[in-house]
Design brief:
This protein is 56% helix and 15% strand. The chain is an alpha+beta fold and 123 residues long. The chain has one domain. The radius of gyration is 14 Å and the shape is globular. The chain starts with a helix and ends with a helix.
Length: 123
């Protein structure tokens, strides 16, 4: 049996709270990072969880990842998930990086469309 709607809502609130904290930390530490979001299909939780870290430009994303900041964002994700009582064996497999610039180019800035495309690639 899957999670009840109440359990899903409880997990979602915890995720939002802890990921918001991770986001604020990263904004203070990582140049070009602007926001993050997460997606999850609770029918396949927690394996379906994906955390997307978004930079302003592709160049900023590339520079941050080349300088090791990707590991810091994975670490912040792991801390947030732990605080939300979400256990994943390999957190890095649930972390993605993207940029506003790439979304603008490929999807005219429509993040819903871009994230739906990412879901279809994974699923």
């Amino acid at each position: 049996m899957g999670l009840s709607k109440r359990d899903q809502a409880h997990i979602e609130r915890r995720l939002v709270a802890t990921l918001t904290e991770a986001c604020e930390t990263a904004k203070a530490e990582i140049i070009g990072f602007t926001w993050l979001t997460h997606e999850v299909d609770y029918a396949e939780f927690p394996s379906s969880l994906s955390v997307i870290w978004v930079f302003d430009t592709q160049a900023q994303k590339d520079l941050a990842l080349a300088s090791g900041q990707g590991e810091r964002m994975v670490e912040l994700t792991a801390i947030a998930l732990s605080e939300a009582d979400v256990l994943l064996s390999q957190v890095s497999a649930h972390v993605q990086f993207d940029s506003e610039e790439q979304c603008q180019r490929a999807h005219a800035g429509n993040w819903q469309q871009r994230l739906a495309r990412n879901r279809s690639k994974r699923g």
